[in-house]
Amino acid sequence: MRADSRKIAAVPAVDGKDPHTQRSLFGEILDWMLMPLLLLWPLSIGVTYVIAKSIANEPFDRSLEDRVTVLAQQVKEMNGEVSARLPFSARDILRADDIDNVYFQVSGPQRQMIAGDSDMPLPDDEDPPVPWAVVLRDAEMRNADVRIAYTYVNLQPSRMTGLNPGDTRYALVQVGETLEKRRLLANQIIKGVILPEFIILPIAIALLWFALSRGLSPLTSLQENIRSRRPDDLSPIDSRAVPEEISPLVRSLNEMLGRLSQSIQSQKRFIADAAHQMKTPLAGMRMQSELALRQDSREEIQRSLEQLAKSSASATRLVNQLLALARAENDSPQATPLKDIDLIALARDTVQEWFGAAQGREIDLGFEAGEEPIIVAGNATMLREMMNNLIDNALRYTQRRGSVTVRVRRNPVQKLAIIEVEDNGPGIPLSERSQVFERFYRILGSEVEGSGLGLAIVREIAQRHGATVTVTHNPHSTDPRFPGALFRISLRIVQSDAREST
Questions:
Q1: What is the pTM of this model?
Q2: N or C: which end of the chain has fewer CB within 10 A?
Q3: Which pLDDT tens digit goes with each residue over 58-101?
Q4: What is the H or E stretch that residue 458 is in?
Q5: Helical segments of 295-363, H only
Q6: DSSP 3-state assignment of 207?
Q7: Which residues neighbour 4 within 8 Å (Cβ) at sequence distance 6 or greater?
């Protein structure tokens, strides 16, 4: 047994309910479309009310301005005395109607009462009066809201007043009315605008419901199309029959169907190949057992039992490899979280388990590794299975008195951990190196017993760990008849050199 470059030593759901509430796409879209509509509808009523009041005030304000102007034209000053003589036409203008009360007042320069209603409130003007400019204001009179229009009439000084000709005096003229007619007009406008909205809103909701149902009908058709398919129908769905917005979903579904079809076909081939491979050892076991039953000679019975045990071992190995391949294919980082593993310690323990088998075949099995540990993220059981298959494959194809070397090293540039298993057997032709990892593939002309699953398991486990697998000839082989093979596995190192050294 070749000495190792390192000393081998032992190295120590609630209540059954889904917590997620299923949402309806139809209901969610309808909510998002109705919510702004129902929120804007009261706002539109408020805006309509404000506009209706403004529209209702405008004609009555103009009428009020006309009244105060007519009344102001009747204000005269004669011999220093201000008077407001109202003709019948002016009295008709100021006459109260059946709905609103009309008030007026004429006051002199000293705000003395000349005519009209004495309890009419005076304006709070801070700026100098502007003659004949009509101003509107809101006030309260006799416990009622009133709208008042007022203006100032300039009075010319006379000898009776004793003022200079440049001095100006003003008489105040006011006309007011209550707001009942304005409210009635505003309410009529609002009724004329709002009442149709009560009819239009349900119709709009019904049309929105109908349009949304029509718009989502392709989803219903797609659902019926998928539901009516046979269980074994994995053909792609025609994406031309659906709207553009649903096409990405259909394409993703077609991609999933394609992957599922490939997976099913692969499983069917695997089951068929496995059944075919199991026939040979099972048929041999049956034949040897029947032969042993017919034999009378003890030696012949012994020979049949040995063949039966050999066939049983072959069948057992095939079943174990099938189970290992199934575990490797179904294993995922989500199902089995990866852990930090010292790759050197794992490889050393694995090689140590094969020393007895190598010695029985007269093969020199060696192990080479550095001093510092190499940490990778992986599943220890699966990585051990991968190395077991590589070592078993190397021992099977190496002739007696040959050598097999397992090497673990570091690639500091690419931060990779490298596992190498090299032998000096017959090697693998360049044309077949891409096929040896296929299930049940055997190199033509090889007389070595095996199931053809070992390298398939190696590739599957390597892929599960994000590793790469390559195979070349053995660069250390010196015999042209036995160029050997070198299998190399490259895994990503998860810890820096600084952390490893600590």
A1: 0.47
A2: C
A3: 888 998 998 888 888 888 887 777 777 766 556 666 665 667 78
A4: helix 454-464
A5: 298-330, 343-353, 355-360
A6: helix
A7: 366, 367, 368
